[in-house]
Design brief:
Layout: E1 6-12, H1 16-26, E2 31-38, H2 45-58, E3 66-68, H3 82-85, H4 107-117, E4 122-126, H5 131-139, H6 143-146, E5 149-153, H7 169-173, H8 175-184, E6 195-197, H9 199-202, E7 206-207, H10 209-218, H11 241-259, E8 266-267, H12 269-278, E9 283-292, E10 303-306, E11 317-323, H13 325-343
Parallel strand pairs: 1-2, 1-4, 2-3, 4-5, 5-6, 6-11
Antiparallel strand pairs: 7-8, 9-10, 9-11
Length: 344
C-alpha cells in the first residue's frame, strides 16, 4: 500500500507563531513530522529546541527528533527579538521542563539523511532564518531536487518590512543564507520551486481574542477571555493545558501589537505557512526570480522579486499572492480544539 502520509521536515526559531504552527501540525491527520531542526532567530537556538521539546511533550509527541543547527547567522552577528516573543520565546506561556533531550546530531545531518533516505517524499517547512537550509545545500547541492517541495515563511514584496522599512524578520536575521537558498533554486522545475509566504499575505492572518475563545469553547474548556483593554501580563485561568498555553502565548503577542498601534491582534505568519505545507490552505501564487540584498546598510535583508523577467533569469520562487484568512482560522479552531480536548 502506498504511503499516504505527508512527510514534513521543520526548521524553526520557535517563536509564538512557530508554536501555534507546531500545535496545528501535531493536530493534523496524515502529517508525519520527520524531525524538527532549530535555528537562532526569535530566541537563541538552544531555547528554540527546549520550546519544541516542551510543546511536543504537551501534545503527546515526545518521540520527534529535535536537533540544533547553526547558532549564529552565516556572516553577521545574531540578533534576537525577545521583546516580540518573550524571554523564553513563547510569550507568557510556561511549560514544564521537557524530559526529552536535544538530539546529538547537527541539523544539517538531519536534513541530509531525511532527503537521501526518502527522496522526493519530504517537504521542507522553514519558518525561521534560512541558515540551516543554506548549510545543508552547501553540503548537498542536489537537496532542492531531493525534496518533494519547500515552503518558506519570509520576505516582503512590494510591501513594508516588519523589521526595517524594507526587510522581514527571518530574512533580516540571515540575509546571506536567504540569498544562497534562492540562488540554489534558480532554473529548477516549477514544481520544485519554494512556495514563499511573505508579509503581504501572512499579515492578513490576524488572530483576535475571538479566535482563542472559539478554540477554548470548541474544546469544551469554557470561555477564554483576552481583554483588549486589560492590563499587560494577565495569565489564563483555564485548567486545559493546551488552551492555557495558546492563550498565554498569544496574549503576549497581542500586547506587542497593541504597543505598536497595530491593534490587539497576533499575526500568525507561520500558521499559514504550515497550512500551505500540509496542502490545507488555499492560495494564489506568482512566479518570480528573487534575490536578497546583503551589502547595503540602508536596505540589507530586502527581498527583491522580478515578476516581469527584466533580469532575464529563470524563476526561483512561487510567491503567494492571495490567501483566505477566514478559512485559515476556521481550520485552526477545528484542529487546535481537537488537540486541546485530547491533551488538555
Amino acid at each position: 500500500m502506498a504511503d499516504s502520509r505527508r512527510r514534513l521536515l521543520l526548521d524553526v526559531d520557535t517563536g509564538i507563531d512557530d508554536a501555534v504552527a507546531l500545535l496545528y501540525l501535531l493536530a493534523t491527520p496524515g502529517v508525519s513530522i520527520e524531525a524538527i531542526t532549530c535555528t537562532a532567530g526569535n530566541v537563541g537556538a538552544r531555547q528554540v529546541a527546549t520550546n519544541n521539546l516542551a510543546l511536543l511533550e504537551l501534545c503527546g509527541h515526545a518521540g520527534v527528533e529535535v536537533a540544533v543547527g547553526s547558532e549564529v547567522p552565516l556572516e553577521i552577528p545574531l540578533v534576537t527579538t525577545e521583546e516580540t516573543h518573550g524571554d523564553q520565546g513563547i510569550g507568557y506561556a510556561v511549560l514544564p521542563p521537557p524530559r526529552g533531550h536535544i538530539s546529538g546530531r547537527h541539523a544539517v545531518d538531519v536534513w541530509l539523511e531525511a532527503v537521501r533516505c526518502h527522496p522526493g517524499q519530504v517537504t521542507g517547512l522553514v519558518t525561521g532564518p534560512l541558515t540551516n537550509l543554506a548549510l545543508a545545500i552547501r553540503a548537498e547541492p542536489d537537496l532542492p531536487m531531493l525534496l518533494k517541495g519547500l515552503v518558506i515563511m519570509g520576505g516582503a514584496f512590494n510591501y513594508p518590512g516588519n523589521t526595517t522599512p524594507v526587510a522581514e524578520w527571518n530574512i533580516h536575521v540571515d540575509p546571506h543564507a536567504a540569498k544562497e537558498v534562492f540562488a540554489a533554486y534558480e532554473g529548477l522545475p516549477q514544481g520544485k520551486l519554494p512556495v514563499v509566504c511573505a508579509l503581504e499575505t501572512t499579515e492578513r492572518i490576524e488572530c483576535t481574542p475571538a479566535h482563542v475563545d472559539a478554540v477554548a469553547r470548541a474544546a469544551g474548556a469554557g470561555r477564554e477571555l483576552l481583554d483588549p483593554d486589560g492590563p499587560a501580563g494577565t495569565r489564563s485561568s483555564s485548567d486545559n493545558a493546551v488552551v492555557a498555553c495558546l492563550s498565554d502565548a498569544l496574549r503576549f503577542y497581542m500586547e506587542f501589537h497593541r504597543l505598536y498601534d497595530q491593534g490587539y491582534i497576533a499575526h500568525l505568519h507561520d500558521l499559514f505557512a504550515a497550512m500551505v505545507a500540509t496542502g490545507e490552505a488555499g492560495f494564489e501564487e506568482r512566479l518570480a526570480t528573487v534575490d536578497v540584498e546583503t551589502e547595503s546598510t540602508l536596505t540589507v535583508g530586502q527581498t527583491v522579486a522580478d515578476f516581469a523577467g527584466i533580469w532575464k533569469r529563470a524563476p526561483n520562487a512561487r510567491i503567494v499572492s492571495g490567501n483566505e484568512p477566514n478559512a485559515v482560522f476556521e481550520l485552526m479552531v477545528r484542529r487546535l480544539s481537537h488537540l486541546a480536548r485530547i491533551h488538555g
